[in-house]
Amino acid sequence: TTTQLSSLTTTQVRAIETTDLVVLTTTQLGSLTTTLVAALSTTQVGVLTTTEIGGLTTTQLVALTAAQVGALTTTQVVILTTTQIGGLGTTQVRALTTTQVASLTTTQIGGLSTTQISSLTTTQIGGIETTDLAAFNTTQITALTTTQMVSLNSTQFGAIETTDLAALTSTQFRVLTTTQIAGLSTTQTGILTTTQLSSLTTTQVRAIETTDLVVLTTTQFGALTTTLVAALSTTQIAGLSTTVIGGMTTTGLSALTGPQIVALTTTQVTEITTTQIVDLTTTFLRALETTDIPFLAVTTTELAMLSTTQLLSLSTSQIASLATTAVAGMTGGQFIGLTSTFIQALTTTQLSVFNTTQIAALTTTSIVGLSTTQISSLSTTQIGGLETTDIAAMTDAQVNGFTSTQVGAMTTSQVNVLFL
Predict the structure, then answer these.
(1) Mean of the per-residue pLDDT values for the chain?
(2) Cα(44)–Cα(34) distance, rounded to whole angstroms?
(3) Rounded Cα gap, residues 214 and 86, in angstroms
(4) Distance from CA of residue 414 to its chain's centroid?
(5) CB distance 253 to 225 below 8 Å
(6) Are 94 and 123 in contact (CB under 8 A)?
(7) In this structure, what DSSP letter does residue 297 have?
(8) What would the pLDDT profile of 295-313 be if each residue is shown by its tens digit?
């Protein structure tokens, strides 16, 4: 009877044959005190039927020693209810073997408390099936310690659902290995929070796959600090979407290093907006390849946004690569500050698009900087825009550079100063 069973001593209960134990009903087994349950040998525990295991009260289950817990078969383990699982102490949880952990169902995994989860060893963490890890809820996933997080293999980490991944704290995220970061899927990368992204180390940010970087929104990319942006490889920079480039702050653009700027594709450069152009640093501009310059300032509006300081920072080869359509839109204010070096770098094709107002806006210093080739390329209409003070300041070589057609197009006032 239950009375008889509960009156047994620990020595007596250990003497029960395993063949006899398996015939006990759940009621009979339930009469054993926690002291008697704890006295059972690991062999006795290992033969209990699934019905008997399922009938153990939470109190009895909690009484099991670590050795007894470790002796449970996987068949017995999978029978445990979420209530029974949830009642296990941390010492008992840590006693589970990797085989036992791997046998847990997703329902059982869902029954683990945050305290139980954080008590798991890294070896046990490694035994969690990907399907079970995917069953973690956000509260459970955030309970993982940094040591446990690092122990997750790439397959396990890739199985974390996006909702759970987004719940990871910045502390958890910051300890992820480069292998784990590189293992992120595009879907996972797409849901990373700005807090998580800003918490990355430079080593971690360099581990992000280029295929994952392209899915980042402007808000996500904007969360990267200037230090993190500067840490990106040239391959990563070249792989950024045009949307991200167009959405970068001027601070973000200014954080780019010389090699990173060189790595920008012409398609990316085209996406730099007029708002961004206004605040581009001279360092950024000088680092652009000459093949990119025409794509930076394609329209008259875009080039007109550059200040004189920005224009003067361009190298002669960059100046020569400016799109003629953009050059045609340069303002009078820009012309006033141009140096002779800048003017000399212009090609005759670029010079040919200047209108008379722009020609008139050139300073005497700029005019004196024109080469004889540039002078002879001026149209008769452009000749009309030359001010008499500018013509008077020209060198003999420049004056001799005028063609008879150009001289014939000059006004009387221009001709008079030409031959002074």
Answers:
(1) 92
(2) 15
(3) 42
(4) 62
(5) no
(6) no
(7) S
(8) 887 777 888 888 999 999 9
| Length of the chain (residues) | 420
Q: How far apart are CA 184 and CA 210, in angstroms?
A: 11
Tokens of 109: 């995994």
For residue range 346-359, list pLDDT tens digits in order. 999 999 999 999 99
Query: Tens digits of per-residue pLDDT, 66-76?
Result: 999 999 999 99
DSSP string, 90-121: HHHHHHS-HHHHHH--HHHHHT--HHHHHH--
Alpha-carbon distances of 238 from 38, 265, 290, rounded to whole Å: 64, 6, 17
Count of Cβ atoms closer than 10 Å to residue 110 Cβ: 16
How many other β-carbons are positioned within 10 Å of the β-carbon of residue 222?
18
For the record, the structure tokens of 32 come out as: 């054993």
Q: Could you report how far apart the first and last alpha carbons of the chain are, in Å?
A: 134
d(CA 88, CA 186) in angstroms, rounded, equals 38
Burial (Cβ within 10 Å: 0-12, 13-18, ≥19) of residue 309: exposed
Residue type, 112: L
8 Å CB contact between 225 and 202: no
The CA distance from 282 to 317, in Å, is 15
pLDDT surpasses 80 at 95: yes
Q: What is the pTM of this model?
A: 0.75
- Two tokens, residue 332: 């009078």
Give the residue carrying structure tokens 């699934």. 50
Structure tokens at 225: 């600090």
